[in-house]
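Example record used in the benchmark description.
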Amino acid sequence: MPNDFGPTTTSVDNALRLLELVGERQALRVAEAAELLGVARSTAHRLLTALRRRGFVMQDRPNGAYRPGPALVEIGLAAVNKIDIRRVARPVLEELREETRETVSLAVLEGTTIRFVDCAEGPRSVRVGNRTGVVRPAHASAVGKAILAGLPDADLARRYPDATLPAATTDAALTDRATLLAEIAGIRAAGYALNWEESAEGVCAVAAALRNTAGQPLAGLGVAAPSSRMGDAGAIRAFAPAVLRAAELVHERLRTPGP
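Model output (structure tokens):
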């Protein structure tokens, strides 16, 4: 391809080609990217890093292969189903916030972390704040564990190849893969996940996965509250039926998207 438009156009073209390659191969290492693009490894690494910052690609672990990220998946879903998960889920988040009077959040999985992408903040003066944009270890959050429970065992093994889990922010978080897998078995049976001060001190949550029309986990929806108000896990668990109803409502709206 002639370089008629200068280095900026070449960089954009290479970035778009990288997105195509990641989509085709589902896993792409820096060395492979450099070879396929015909560029230096440093150039491929810079482009992939920029795409990762924007959520178009992700890594399961440091120095791991790059895979399709949530932004790329969301664009694909929007093209195929003409839907936007945030647009579809937003009214449900607001309804659940009114029902529970607590903060309701939407999050997506990125490798072994989750990123909060939308929030309906609770009306109480003492509440969990808006965490949109915040990243947390998936195994230390209710929404993360709910999404993980919807993945095949082989996918979990690929994301967590080591017996020890990545470090989290509080001492209450799970620390080993065996305990996580045991909890995931319980989440699959119950349909929802709990978090008691695992991602942040003073915060507890209950969450369920939001599934696409193929039944695959697309995101997670959770209610978070100050643990001081809840008192014990039973109180936050009481919100589980409402969370499950909300998740089912989002699923129905994904099946029959509006114009």
